[in-house]
Amino acid sequence: MNINVTLFGQMITFLLFVIFTKKFVWPPIIKALKERQGKIADGLAAAERGHHELAKAQEQIALELKQTKESASNIIVEAKKQADSIVDASRQQAHEEGVRIIQQAHSEIEHMIAQAKEDLRKQVATIALLGAEKVLARSIDAKAHQDLLDKLAQEI
After folding, report:
1. How many helices (H) and strands (E) does the chain have?
2. DSSP three-state, residue 112
3. What span, in angstroms and rounded, lies between the C-alpha atoms of 123 and 126?
4. Cα(83)–Cα(90) distance, rounded to whole angstroms?
5. Which are the contacts of 120, defined by CB distance < 8 A and separation ≥ 6?
6. What are the two backbone dihedrals, phi and then psi, of residue 58, each rounded to the nearest 5 degrees?
7. Average pLDDT over residues 70-85
8. Using an 8 Å Cβ cutoff, are 121 and 153 in contact?
9. d(CA 123, CA 143)
10. What are 119-134's pLDDT values in tens digits?
11. Does position 72 have pLDDT exceeding 80, yes or no?
């Protein structure tokens, strides 16, 4: 009987221990486990959101980098075009200025040649007249003198 009473006493003690544990020990443990499980789930969700946001940020950075490269390329192309147009305009202006200077020099040379020819004609006519006067040893009248000068000027 001692075995039965002891066994029955141990069963009652164990049953009281289980009830006590179920009522006072398990609820805080289960509550702590559920809180921990919630924190872990929140942490995993936050990590997933972080990975998603990181992927979006990397895509955005890649897009902005591409746009920046295209913009820089366009700026470089425009700068080259502008430089080429400035160089072409300067070249054209220099060419026009050179043509103008050459034309001006040609007209000055032609004017000087015409003036030199006219001076030379006058000098040749005067020398010829003086030579004719000395050879003939007489003076020619003014009208004859002028006719001779005109003929001589045309021949020269």
Report:
1. 3, 0
2. helix
3. 5
4. 10
5. 156
6. -65, -40
7. 92
8. yes
9. 19
10. 888 887 777 777 776 6
11. yes
